[in-house]
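so my prof wants the structure for this chain in the tokens format not the other one, which i didnt know existed until like an hour ago. anyway here's the sequence
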Amino acid sequence: MDEADWLAERFEAHRPRLRAVAYRMLGSAAEADDALQEAWLRLSRSGASGVQNMAGWLTTVVARVCLDLLRSRQSRREEPVSEHLPASDGEDPEYQALVADSVGLALLVVLDALTPAERLAFVLHDMFDVPFDQIAPVIERSPAAARQLASRARRRVRAAGPISGRDPARQREVVTAFLAASRGGDFAALVALLDPDVALRGDRESVQLGAPEEILGAHAVARVFAEYARGARPALINGLAGAVWAPGGRPRVAFVFTLADGAITAINRVADRDRLRELNLVILDA
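here's what i got, hopefully its the right format
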């Protein structure tokens, strides 16, 4: 086996974990795959000479690539342009478990509020047990500073409330009222149910269907949701209240709601077919 084949074999052995790291960092399957492709290109160009810990080296490279993508995304938001919702291709068991776990979309919404450095420190340390002395060079900080960033991120995640174990009854009450106000054209009621900083986001497939990629703010979200989601039907999505656009009874777009303190803080549109199949969808009577 020559070096190129050996490198490819080692990279493939680490791919599931690297993909999981990139997905948690970026919240987008497509961007996670892009990050892994860049990591492979860097490995194939540099070779394994001097690499004593291949897993650690690859994790660091993927983290650097993800950090660059997060910073680029943050600068694009000033235009504004947003990131994509996660979508899964179901290629490996670890990735499927990652996307389907109990925190999934809700945690990604919280992670989106962190700075790139906070997100990197939190994800690598708290989710993948990467030591701070390995994280520090990636974000160009000291290990102590990396520890502080992770701690700050941890507090912000906790402050967002429990990500799993939410109150299904309260969720259904708020979402049902929101959908009724949308169908009835009650703009004031829509705004009243939304957090002032609410975000309405869509994945690539929903954007291709004509929906905006990202809308911020209660008034803007109320206007856009009333326009694009008037035909949405109430649904249970993984046991929580949501909505589905299902022409002919076939789900085409799922609307996943995140609540905090009785207000809707995020609405995520999911149109990716693989992702829709992963969701436990039950369409309810309007």
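also thought this was worth mentioning. The chain has two domains: 3-159, 168-283.
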